[in-house]
Amino acid sequence: MYDVRWDRVADIVVLGCGAAGIAAAIAGQASGANVVVLEKMNERHAGGNTRLSGGIWFDNRNPERAAVYLESLCGDFSLPPQVVRAWAEETALNSEWLQSLGANIAHYGDYIPEYPELAGSDCYRGYLGIDGKIGDELLYRALMRAIQDRNIEVIYESPAIQLITEPSSGRVIGVEAKKDGKPYRVGARRGVVIATGGFEANKQMVRDYLGLANPPLWGSPASEGDGIRMAMQVGADLWHMSNMMAIDGVDAPELGAGFATLGLVGAKSFIFVAPDGSRFIDENVDLRHGHVLTHGRYQLFPRERSFVIFDEQARLAGPVVPGPGELPVGWNMLMEKYVWSEDNLAEIERGWIVASDTLSGLAGKLGLHPEGLEKSVALYNRYCDAGLDEQFNREPTTLVPLRSAPYYGFVSEPILAWSNGGPRRDANARVLGVSGQVIEGLFAAGNVSSTYSWCKDGGFHIADALAFGRIAGRTAAGNEPISV
Asked: What is the rounded distance in angstroms from the CA atom of residue 260 to the CA atom of residue 324?
């Protein structure tokens, strides 16, 4: 019927083996479909940012209130009511579904909503995780056990290149991938689910859509926007492409990714400065998964390059990045197995952090305005002595002066954790074209097409991936099968 020579045929072809892709595969099979998963990376590095993340999701205690909360978080960037309702109802089922797969679920820590003042935040009942723990690949491994138990085939090292459509109708009927260096075409009787992750590792897309010149990557290098590009080629519309989550941190170029510093963890004698050496923010500002409250409104943060300056007292306070016992997440820690030194000296020797006996010398090494940096440190130290930060109202208990030479610093580019935008989809995870029409046979879930148009709370990305992954799998399985 179609002039394509298939190497393989399945009811549903899932692209990507993270939380969304695995959820789609399991849900599709449970709905009676034969499923195959194509994964870009090798088995050692598969799993996208699901494998590298905290792997925890929020406890949605009330779907009706959760819908209100999501609408509040969207702010001026509203979502279709049907998408909001589907998200609210399906995210409330995440734990029950994971338990049905054999996972042990428990609360992690004692967390409250990051936006308690917003309507609907009372839906939020903290974090849930596998065995009540965070990171360490726990969610990914639990999902992989479930997919293996169901004999769903995952074909590794097979990156999807382009979607294949039926010429007369435009329906997506399969995908062309590359396997062993050769074209590998897989037909899809019921549909293709794109779950390929975001575009954080695509430098050009990051420049075009996020306005960031060259940010270090936090997560998987596989997140190159493949699914977005393929969807666009068959006419998909896009949504909230400028939304993202970045984090403060230090780059480690030879490892290929950066580290989150999280306010230098236990240190207090530090400041953030701009290229002219001036302070520009409360260094302990309340970070809310990519946003901060500034001048009465929520804004993306960080978006600009800054410089982190600290002294010998801060260096001796412990590692400037959280260790595996605190936060076992990220490419460098989980894939590269890098453990930051307790005294930060190994990283200083590597050049990730620069040192100098004087502030002016440090400024020269970092490319900062020397007089500006000296003036900022002197003013900050006076605030510390007075116990009052007159510039940014930093919490008095964190005001510790920088007076212990040597001095240290590093460039803190916005380290890109994940992008949020991608192909526009409806409440059934069906990809929509530029005229609002459904592109038949094409579905999207996870970070390739995140629900979040603006603010998001903790555990929201995993919750979204699991929820719409299941929706995509069920919807695709319900499609009328065609012969391919």
From this structure: 12
Q: Which of 2, 51, 20, 400 is nearest to 174 (CA)?
A: 2
Question: Could you give the CA distance from residue 278 to residue 378 in angstroms, rounded to a whole number?
Answer: 11
Residue-level pLDDT at 263: 64
DSSP 480: P
CA distance 33 to 145: 19
User: Comparing C-alpha atoms, which of 426, 412, 350 is closest to residue 215?
Assistant: 412
- The single-letter DSSP state of residue 344 is S
Q: What is the C-alpha to C-alpha distance for residues 448 and 202, in angstroms, rounded to an integer?
A: 13
Architecture of domain 8-244+418-477: 3-Layer(bba) Sandwich (3.50)
Residue identified by tokens 């909503």 is 113
* Domain extent listing, the chain: 8-244+418-477, 249-413
Per-residue pLDDT of 296-325, as tens digits, reads 899 999 998 999 999 999 999 999 998 888
Q: Per CATH, which fold does 249-413 belong to?
A: Flavocytochrome C3; Chain A, domain 1 (3.90.700)
Split at pLDDT 50, 70, 90, the class of 368 is very high
Contact status, residue 88 vs residue 161, Cβ threshold 8 Å? no
Q: Report the C-alpha gap between 69 and 125 in whole angstroms.
A: 13
- On whether the CB atoms of residues 340 and 347 are closer than 8 A, the answer is yes
- How far are the Cα atoms of 30, 205, 225, 367 from residue 209, in angstroms, in the given order? 37, 6, 12, 28
pLDDT at 1: 46
CA–CA separation, 123 vs 65, rounded Å? Answer: 5
**DSSP letter, residue 184:** E
Contact predicate 446/223, CB 8 Å: no
* Other Cβ atoms within 10 Å of 5 Cβ, number: 8
Within a 10 A sphere around the Cβ of 6, how many other Cβ atoms? 16
In the Cβ-directed half-sphere of 390, how many Cα atoms lie within 13 Å? Answer: 8
Cβ neighbours of 250 (radius 10 Å): 22
The DSSP output letter for 206 is: I
Cα Rg for the chain, rounded, in angstroms? Answer: 23
